[in-house]
Write a structure and sequence with these properties.
The chain is an alpha+beta fold. The chain is built from three helices and four strands, in the order ββαββαα. The chain has helices at residues 61-91, 125-148, 153-170; strands at 49-51, 53-58, 95-104, 110-119. The strands form two sheets. Strands 1-2 form a two-stranded antiparallel sheet. The termini are far apart.
Amino acid sequence: MSHNHHMNSSMMPATHPPEHHHSMAGPGHGHGSDMMMMAMTFQFTYENVPLLFSGLTINTPGEMAGAFVAVFFLAMFYEGLKIARECLLRKSQVSIRYNSMPVPGPNGTILMETHKTVGQQMLSLSHLLQTVLHIIQVVVSYFLMLIFMTYNGYLCIAVAAGAGMGYFFFSWKKAVVVDITEHCH
């Protein structure tokens, strides 16, 4: 089956600029004549940059600066949300059991191995809160992915820098060895 009728702007002849490209698809192909071509390489521009929704388009340097700041804080929020969920999970652990069992050691000795078992109730307010926060975290993560997929260099830097700054501010406790008696503050 020939797919020669599917041409993108990079395959158009040099005498035919991409902005004058008309849809070559016939009926039933699902392509509309107002289809926007997405950039597949990184570019640093502030004109005609779509941001998540069709009515939200960046067209000025001020709008790009505002979008940069908003995306930066959204990425920071995402990192903070991840840590907050971990903290809430530690607080909501209902029962902690320690099970010891003998295991064979070197030279015929017997060692005691201890396992920590944590329980949580499914029908609890803490689990419901965790579920809602998980949904928010998933939605924010997809928003950040879609923003990065605009291939706009400024917005990609905002996502990466915001995530890095969020990790710096919120995850510094994660690197510390956690004592089992320590509580999340």
